[in-house]
Amino acid sequence: MAFLTHQVTRGFSSSAVRNVIIKQVMIIGGGQMGAGIAQVAAATGHSVTLVDMSEDVLKKAVKGIEGSLKRVVKKKFADKPEAGAEFVQNVMKNVSSSTDAAFTAQSSDLVLEAIVENLKIKQDLFAGLDKVAPAHTIFASNTSSLPISDIASSTSRLDRFGGLHFFNPVPMMKLVEVIGTSATSQDTFDSLLNFSKALGKTPVSCKDTPGFIVNRLLVPYMMEAIRLHERGHGSKEDIDIAMKLGAGYPMGPFELLDYVGLDTAKFIIDGWCLMDPNNPLFGQSEMLNKLVAEGKYGRKTGEGFYKYK
Predict the structure, then answer these.
(1) What is the rounded CA–CA span in Å between residue 234 and residue 229?
(2) What is the pLDDT of residue 16?
(3) Quick check: is 224 catalytic?
(4) Per annotation, catalytic residue among 215, 229, 255, 303
(5) Which pTM was predicted?
(6) Catalytic member of 177, 185, 191, 255
(7) Which of 144, 154, 185, 191 is catalytic?
(8) What is the mean pLDDT of the chain?
(9) Active site annotation includes 177
């Protein structure tokens, strides 16, 4: 990985390091998710280093964090603009950026990745960082669909590896799924739970199963909506209206698919189908495959199940 520009090897025991209090946080990936996590961590007093291979991505991310904080203070400090400005300044003091993951990992209590959903890339990243990070450092992935145990397998700290799955937009969404594998120590899991609470989030404990809790229920629900439409049992408009008015959902399944990204939904369901091909909940959809093949991913491309241009 290009991230790993310094090779510093540290020997350490594979036994669990107890009572880790997470203060120094390294977040890998300067996209929307990584920047959102960085903002929340910095706003709650953690020292955060945002890492990416691209300086331009990092500059955009840091600027985006500052802009997001300024929008927050307009509401939170409506009558006290000076206090709001001071709040933004203090939070931004907790944020730094780097293109050198290996160097940053050496002083981190938590290394959290929020990069592309590619198992090999994640494994290679953590394998390199495992050689340089201190013994107490906890590794975590923000993956929404890949098995945490598979990502962790590239490292020697299986007991200090877990999942922290945040939801977009991170500053607004209260939930964090905390995932433990069969090898994750209780101390590591507790540290991740406590860190989530320190961010002001509500953590739920999850096993390392496909989709954890939210996506394990949500993705099959969205796929079944597509199949319902494919069978001619309801228009996408009527299905969306029915779920919003009948179930109280803020979005219908097709609106949500377009928001999440049809390519993302297909990536998740394809991965699950490979893991468990006989599970009917993980079956393919010709309609979804066709839209993705045509580059119609939803809101981000201007068209998915609906048109946005």
Answers:
(1) 5
(2) 45
(3) no
(4) 215
(5) 0.89
(6) 177
(7) 144
(8) 93
(9) yes
